[in-house]
Amino acid sequence: MIEADDIQATVLRPRPSPYQGEYLLLRINDAAQGREMIRRIIPHVAPAVEWWSPSLPGWLGIAFTYKGLEALGVPRTSLESFPVEFRQGMAARAEILHDFGANAPTHWEHPFGTADLHVALAIYAQDEENLRLVLERAHQSHRDLPGVSVVYRMRFGELPEGRNPFGFKDGLHNPHLEGSAAQQEQVAASPDHEKPMKAGEVILGYPDVWGEIATAPVPEELRRNGTFLAFRKFHMHVAAFRKYLRKQASSPEEEELLAAKMIGRWRSGAPLVLAPDQDDPQLGADRKGNNSFSYADDMNGLRCPFSAHIRRINPRDALKGDIVQVDLHRFIRRGTNYGVPLPEGVLEDDGAERGGVFLLIGAHVERQFEFVQSQWATDGNFISHGAEQDPIIGNNEGDGIFTIPKHPVRRRLHALPKFVTVRGGEYCFMPGLRALRWLANLDA
Ligand code: HEM
């Protein structure tokens, strides 16, 4: 069994619904004060076992960038034992991630891509009042410490019916981990045929897909029950998405079908593999049913296109027979939405910021998030689609293509614009609770 009392809740538990929250990013200018901040915050960091227990008004998660660990005074031998992608940071990996043009780090919001981002706090609560309470605790941890400063604050919250700004139900699928009793909700929603992930794929200290247990970073106290996350903030161009659909379709029904083809699910969450011709809201609302599908029944892509977002990003059993081992490229995904929805039917951009922040969590960032982003989201080779990218998160610049298999001839959409723009991102290390104490007591 994995030690759910030592692992942060974010890793094993889905966020609450409804949810309100804030991301708070900190810079540490004084190592001793940074460690004091950690000492004060530890009692409020939610372990996975205590998720939504009545003693907690909300949930606080904490993670550190490489620069943050440096600023806390973590010894050099330990710093150097971290994986290279974490040490370099997300901005330095822009080429691998295809973060160019409007997505390039030079356009990111401050402090993303700079040395000013040290600590990320994610604070969630079920309502405003509880959010205020947890936020107050977070602020108390550093209010009187001039050596710790807030460099970024961002509010987020659930949109009506748990939809994202494009109107799709989100947070529907996540793998569950072997040996994790804390993940009952996830297990209940998992399709019967889906293999659980090896715990070491997500949490350091347990056997991974190869049966191996990570030996880095060192020391063991620091890595045990920790993990890494890729933080990605996206602005969603909702008006551009609606306008594009309107232009390509001759009826509202066709617009809905094209939107579903791009994602691989209807807006209700019903997967195209199970509901190929029209939406099935009942299926969309069925937590287990809406995940119980396999691409084995759709190997020609006539239901769900090969290039649809969910099929690219998690091909499930679609690549069977290929040399790719899909198990190596899975991760846990926690998403939150921000901004006010663009009113229904509006096709002109109102200039407001709206979108999502994704935490892509796994023990092996390079072969998980980075591989998926570079090989599956922004390249089409693995599905014999040349340079075609993911229609939603691909870095298209008005030149995108989206292929929809169809009888007797396929349909091909052209001139896809960018539907989402990266506003910032960073790699963080999310330690277990004992490791947090180790960090707080580095000077002891
Ligand atoms: C603004 C950007 C994005 C949008 C609008 C978006 C939208 C969606 C939607 C609507 C779903 C289906 C519902 C669900 O399971 O939650 C989904 C699933 C998924 N997305 Fe995204 N997504 C975005 C970014 C990303 C990124 C950056 C990644 C990782 C690189 C990612 C990975 C996944 C995965 C793994 C699934 C589950 C696939 C499955 O069901 O097998 N998404 N996304």
What does this molecule look like?
The mean pLDDT is 94. The protein has helices spanning 9-12, 31-41, 66-71, 76-79, 84-88, 94-97, 128-140, 184-189, 220-223, 238-248, 252-263, 281-284, 309-313, 366-377, 433-440; strands at residues 20-28, 58-64, 119-125, 148-157, 227-236, 332-338, 355-362, 400-404, 411-416, 420-430. Strands 2-3-1-4 form a four-stranded antiparallel β-sheet. The chain has a four-stranded antiparallel β-sheet with strand order 6-7-5-10. A two-stranded antiparallel sheet has the order 8-9. The longest helix has 13 residues, at 128-140. The protein is 25% helix and 18% strand. By secondary structure, it is of the alpha+beta class. α2 packs antiparallel against α15 and α10 (238-248) packs across α11 (252-263). The protein contains 15 helices and ten strands. β8 (400-404) and β9 form a beta hairpin. The structure holds protoporphyrin IX containing FE (HEM). Protoporphyrin IX containing FE binds at residues 164, 166, 168, 170-173, 232, 234, 236, 263, 265, 309-310, 313-314, 316, 333, 355-356, 358, 360, 369, 372-373, 377, 392-393, 420.
